[in-house]
Amino acid sequence: MQTFDTVIRNARVVTAADIFTSDIGIRDGRIVALGLDLEAGAREIDAAGRHVTPGGVDSHVHFDQPTGDGSIMADDFLSGTTSAACGGTTTVIPFACQQKGHTLREAIDDYHRRADRKPVIDYAFHLIVTDPTPEILRDELPALIAEGYTSFKIYMTYDALKLSDREMLDTLSVARSEGAMVMIHAENADCIAWLTERLLAAGHTAPRYHATSRPMLVEREATHRAIAFAELVDVPILIVHVSGREAVEQIRWAQSHGLKVYGETCPQYLFLTADSLGCDDSFEGAKCICSPPPRDKANQQVIWDGLENGAFEVFSSDHAPFRYDGPDGKKAHGEAVSFDQIANGIPGVETRMALLWSEGVRTGRITPQSFVALTATNAAKLYGLYPRKGSIAIGADADLVIWDESRTFHLENAKLHHNVDYTPYEGMHLSAWPALTMSRGDVVWDGEKPCGDAGRGEFLPCARPDPAKPRRRKTELPL
Ligand code: URP
Ligand code: ZN
Ligand code: ZN
């Protein structure tokens, strides 16, 4: 009997802790041996001189999510996961979004239908809680957490999604008692509405005013409030898509006071600025409308610093795919619309890993180990998928990326596999790209073409994450 289905030879294996040269023995989709001179496998892959990292865990993506504003997401679970695989990601966690007036269970059932027979890589779901009625908080949310939906996002902005302060407290309290991880979109809705009204009244309607309507202080205030609520309830939280200095300072403050506050950032805050939304009134800037908006060069540096110094746990894509041309995406209401009518979000599931390896690791800004922590290991831990996902270890799924760092990769949308008609990173020259992506032992990207079959991806119920455990300090408060 052949011991290994596949042996990857002489890899420079990178984990969140170590780098070492090893063969990787794979059987039945799992890593079963690490060592030198492993016996021959049925298939042999030479990785001499190449870094091999865990497949990425992209814990913030939106696929086929109904928007309710006339726009339609361009990527479903097939194109979205194919694009992810081609960029070195082997696990995605999209959002099952509750519609107000409906149950969370309906959202989960709907998302399982949307994912049916489509994903080429493994996937879990976060919930988005938009309507936390007493019944939902008492019965449904705890039941879903017990079934493996152990994380949820709450919004402090967007009329269709946002919770009041009181609703946030009630929802955080359930996360505490049931052991779920809470992701928070922190922007102050009333400040944004107030600024938007004044900008529109002054005739400032172009896409670039999206950034003016959401200055850093609205993110800072909401981040501060979310942290205060989490402290009051004594529950860990994760602030998603952090854009710059002011929110980072709030997170750092919380961490320095011993609070379990985690931070996530995304490529758009390293590589785009508010100028990407246009320096004139042309519609083209709509391509880079996302919330919070990208800031400026100085804030890009703050985000790099945060990746380097541990302020951030995760580097996700926040892939929110809307086409630029056509009737469904950024132009769903035409080009003569004000910035507040344009779908929010940019694509990035395929480019996330290579951008950070090329511009983070190859430039010496972060270590290969930090790259692995930020793109895979920490997300797997934060969302209850570790150690099956996010590491190269005996017993872990054989989700792996072999990196090609031997040439320059010219980033062009035409080479990507999402269903979006642009990339915000068009024209960048990267010094790395996955030469091969493997998901549970199957090659799903061979360096030239996607090769994962639709529907091979498995749904992953998530465990209650350790990082979601409350601090349980002595308190007089009735928690
Ligand atoms: O603009 C963004 N980030 N769109 C995606 C939805 C969200 O809030 O993450
Ligand atoms: Zn968000
Ligand atoms: Zn998002």
Describe this structure in words.
Helix content is 29%, strand content 20%. The protein is an alpha/beta fold. It has a domain at 56-370: TIM Barrel (Alpha-Beta Barrel). Helix 3 (134-147) runs parallel beside helix 4 (165-178) and helix 7 (216-233) packs parallel to helix 8 (245-256). The radius of gyration is 22 Å and the shape is globular. Bound molecules: N-(aminocarbonyl)-beta-alanine and zinc ion (ZN) (2 copies). One zinc ion is lined by residues 60, 62, 318, 320. It is an enzyme of class 3 (hydrolase).
Question: Which key terms come to mind for this protein?
Answer:
single chain, alpha/beta, about 20% strand, binds zinc ion, 19 strands, about 30% helix, about 475 residues, nine-stranded parallel β-sheet
Structural class: alpha/beta
DSSP, total strands: 19
Largest sheet properties: 9 strands, parallel
| N-C termini distance | 57 Å
Shape: globular
For the record, the CATH class of the domain at 56-370 is Alpha Beta
CATH architecture of the domain at 56-370: Alpha-Beta Barrel
Strand content: 15-25%
How much helix, percentage-wise, in residues?
25-40%
CA gyration radius, whole angstroms: 22 Å
**Tally of individual helices:** 12
Q: What integer is the average pLDDT?
A: 97
User: What would CATH call the homologous superfamily of the domain at 56-370?
Assistant: Metal-dependent hydrolases
- pLDDT below 50 for ≥5 consecutive residues: which ranges? none
What molecules are bound to this protein?
N-(aminocarbonyl)-beta-alanine, zinc ion
At the fold tier of CATH, the topology name of the domain at 56-370 is: TIM Barrel
